[in-house]
Amino acid sequence: MPGFEGRGVYHGVGKHASTLSDSDLQQALMAFYTSQIFYKLTVNSTKISVIFLYRRIFTNILPFRRLTSAVMIYISLYATASILATIFQCTPINRAFDHEIEGRCLDTTAFWFVNAINNILTDLLTLALPQRLIYQLQMRKRVKAGLYSIFGLGL
């Protein structure tokens, strides 16, 4: 992803569009478009990775394994849907980064809000998954507080 971001900055990402040449604007939009796909992939892959860590720690608790499986399936399906929506946000696809092409696009502002809400909710859900199991551990409150902190820092 840094390559796409660097390419975007080189072509003017962060500057007002009116100050960019048509070529730089198109290249900046293409870099932004590409980076959005990888952003969605990495954010959701990280959540699934954290849940796999939880499953390694809490190995023999069947209800927890079922719950984590359901959450991972949801995150995977949403990631797939949001990546596909990002790729095909415009018809034709090139319209996403070349506004000279005739076509139509999704309401990207609404899509970003939906994506942000989903990311916040799945972050909170991922954070909440091990809380009950930590609470049930037989250890001093101070040690439990440390565990809550460690798991809380995971996100």
Could you explain how this protein is built, in words?
The radius of gyration is 20 Å and the shape is elongated. It contains six helices and two strands; from the N terminus they run αααββααα. A two-stranded antiparallel sheet has the order 1-2. Helices cover 72% and strands 3% of the residues. By secondary structure, the protein is mostly helical. The protein starts with a helix and ends with a helix. Helix 2 (22-57) runs antiparallel to helix 3 (62-87) and helix 2 (22-57) packs parallel to helix 4. It has helices at residues 2-10, 22-57, 62-87, 108-128, 131-136, 141-153; strands spanning 90-91, 104-105.
How is this structure best summarized?
The chain is mainly alpha-helical. It has helices spanning 2-10, 22-57, 62-87, 108-128, 131-136, 141-153; strands at 90-91, 104-105. Helices cover 72% and strands 3% of the residues.
Percent of residues in beta strands = under 5%
Helix content: over 70%
Low-confidence stretches: none
Broad shape: elongated
Rg, alpha carbons: 20 Å
Going across the major beta sheet, what is the strand order?
1-2
Number of helices: 6
Number of strands: 2
Which class do the helix and strand fractions yield? mainly alpha
Written as H for each helix and E for each strand, in order along the chain, the element string is HHHEEHHH
How does the major sheet shape up? 2 strands, antiparallel
Mean pLDDT: 84
Distance between the termini: 20 Å
